[in-house]
Amino acid sequence: MSSLLKTLVSKPWLSGQDVVGAPADVQAFALPREKVGLRLFFAVATSLFLLFIVSYRMRMYYDDWVPLIEPGLLWFNTGVLVLASVFMQLAKGSAQRRTTWFVLGGLAAISFVGLQLLVWEQLAAAGHFVSSNPASSFFYLITAVHGLHMLGGIVAWGRTLLLAGSAAEQDRYRMYVDLCAVYWHYLLLVWAVLFYLLLTT
Amino acid sequence: MAYADQDSGHHAGPDAFIWKYVFSQDHKVIAIQYGCTAIAVGLLALVLSWLMRMQIGFPGSLEFVDPTVYYQAVTMHGMIMVIYLLTALFLGGFGNYLIPLMCGARDMVFPFLNMLSYWFYLVSVIILMASYFVPGGPTGAGWTLYPPQSILQGTPGHDWGIVMMLVSLAVFIIAFTMGGLNYVTTILQARCKGMTLMRMPLTIWSIFTATVLGLLAFPALFVSAVMLLFDRLLGTSFFMPYIVHMGQAMETGGGSPVLFQHLFWFFGHPEVYIVALPAFGLVSDILSTHARKNIFGYRMMVWAILAIGGISFIVWAHHMYVSGMNLYLGFFFATTTLIIAIPTAIKVYNWTLTLWHGNIHLNTPMLFAIGFISTFLIGGLTGLFLGNVAVDIPLSDTYFVVAHFHMVMAIAPIMVVFAAIYHWYPKITGRMYNETLGKWHFWVTFVGTYLIYFPMHYLGFEGMPRRYYAYEGYEFISDSAQNLNEFISVVAITVGVLQVLFLINMVMSMKIGRKAPANPWNATTLEWQTPETPPAHGNWGDRLPVVYRWAYEYSVPGAATDFVPQNQPDDSQPAASTDHGGGGPAGGSPADGGPADRSPDNPHGVSA
């Protein structure tokens, strides 16, 4: 923060105040650009989910809101997502078994998406459809948006996996594994917030 | 190290036509693709405005303009101009072209994503245009798309048109996000050696801030669009209240139309600045260059950009004073609206003070830039009227509002669009535009816009409501209002048609324009110092530039020339031209037909 303030009060018209440095010196963050890009994407996705949450909170105070049942399967799904995140973290930290953990992390994520669909089926079987009540509308909508983000991650996971066997691409592979791990953690965090919202309302 | 900041090596681009010009990953080609698409779709929106003006000025003169066609024209004109023209042109067009060049990078950091961004944008435009060919035609709900009316029978395009519009917006937002991540990451991470944040031209600061606003605000439009789609297609009631429609109670109900309005304007007001901020930045650089003076109060300008960006997120409900929200909230939003006028006013003062005692060159870009200050000032001042609840309520939904937002958000940014196109045309095409045609274009546009929009303020005060198909039989509207409407329509259509001067100039100059020197305006920023004009793939030849100074060293006392390029070391003569036979102070003013002489009497090589 202080360096940002220092930057913003510098006087570029006075010579000698800004010393020419290496390219790294003018980079705002000491991170590869892919990591910076992903964090920016998190800002966008956070804005998106926050706005859904705000809309949910505003809409739930209207008379027609009937709280939705919470299928027990959601707890199991949450556990699977936690497991996916753990596997990804292990992949990030392990040199020998990176690919093994990485594959497991991806498979767990795929399972999570499938299991969420199963929750939809259970709700539909219990008579809770998309348009039955605003609470169920929001449930389907929010889980769909979260699931689509997960699917996007799974596509990235698949593309990363293609690099696993190439000796020349190991640096890139390692970085992409890192990116996937961070993305998985982010989606776990988002799900934790959404799940809390669904449980408590 | 990725391509964007690779310092050395050969940087030949792809040879095949399809990879070089169609599916190109070169930021300059993508910028031109964005620009051409945006201008093409903008021209269509211009024609739609003629249909509206014909109906208002000469009711019934065009038989095919029935209420349905009229409302569809109103809606499509607004949405196209705000989103598909201005947002796309400023960020996708100018952002793409200028960010890598002004930052000293070879390209955007994620070129593939950048290419995808354009193609998603094109798809969104195609979907929008396709809505003219679906049953019922495009939506006529007004650009704000307020439910419940936007999806109820009786509104044009309530069946498929609204669906096409919402899907198109969702695709546009995905396109913007891909582009936006590129712009911000490139500015943060791929600046060349020496280009510290406070040495960046204000163009870059403003595009950066506008992109951040877009990345955070467009999700609100996405959320509202998706929820409205659900209401329309799946029978949910996010926004749909209990309604008796066509004599029957609807199955849906209980929702909140005001929730949609909050979401829409949480996007909608930052959107004003997503358009205005890039205009602020571009005009700052144009004014400084053509006044041969450093921008007045650079740091204050940067802070003002950041302040406007921040405050723009807490003013949205001033669009909703008459929507039934809590009146005390109105007080809060009126206050924030007045507060945001402070940094905005600082910018206007600083532009004016930049001109003060400057060596002003009244060429076409400069005329348009000064035209911007004038139109933005007028539009901004009427914004102060409308920001106050007590004044806004009687003026709401009148032509005063139409006049206000056209002056501040349509004409002012379009002035900058023209200024910027003329200013950077020599770099983009390698040819000079025709100055005489350019000046004619300016005077027609500038005088014309005042003739169109000044009378609208009066009509608004008289209470003439906006968005009405016909105005006969309203006692509070005087007969003379119709005369004024006829006058406005004639001028609007004339000024619209005369934009052909611009198109002719752009197209013909590409063929027969004088060959442009690398730096015809004797500008300091990096894009004018490229080894080739137009810049080749990779922008910088063998070596990336190194920056030694800020972007506004004009008329520095004691300097050999009246400008010092950013990449010129302290103890040398302008280097770029000798390095590459290209950039640097080689050029002259275009007005005299060629690079100006350099002599002891005219050391800057600048023509009067």
Overview of this protein structure:
- The complex is a heterodimer of chains A (201) and B (608).
- With 201 residues, chain A is mostly helical.
- Chain A has one domain: Four Helix Bundle (Hemerythrin (Met), subunit A).
- Chain A has helices at 2-8, 23-26, 33-59, 73-93, 98-125, 134-161, 170-200.
- The longest helix of chain A is centred in the last third of the chain and has 31 residues, at 170-200.
- The relative contact order of chain A is 0.14.
- The model of chain A has no long low-confidence stretch (mean pLDDT 92).
- By secondary structure, chain B is mostly helical.
- Among the domains of chain B are: 27-195, no CATH class; 397-516; 518-608, no CATH class.
- In chain B, a hairpin with a 2-residue loop joins strand 1 and strand 2 (248-249).
- In chain B, helix 6 runs antiparallel to helix 7, helix 8 packs antiparallel against helix 9 (327-355) and helix 12 (399-429) runs antiparallel to helix 13.
- The longest helix of chain B has 37 residues, at 67-103.
- Chains A and B meet through helix 2, helix 3 and helix 6 of A and helix 5, helix 6, helix 7 and helix 8 of B.
What is the strand and helix layout of this fold?
The complex is a heterodimer of chains A (201) and B (608).
Chain A: H1 2-8, H2 23-26, H3 33-59, H4 73-93, H5 98-125, H6 134-161, H7 170-200
Helix pairs in contact in A: 3-6, 3-7, 4-5, 4-7, 5-6, 6-7
Chain B: H1 17-22, H2 27-57, H3 67-103, H4 111-130, H5 161-189, H6 202-233, E1 244-245, E2 248-249, H7 257-290, H8 298-311, H9 327-355, H10 364-387, H11 389-395, H12 399-429, H13 435-461, H14 480-497, H15 500-512, H16 576-580
Antiparallel strand pairs in B: 1-2
Helix pairs in contact in B: 2-3, 2-4, 2-14, 3-5, 3-6, 3-7, 3-12, 4-5, 5-6, 6-7, 6-8, 7-9, 7-10, 7-12, 8-9, 9-10, 10-12, 10-13, 12-13, 13-14
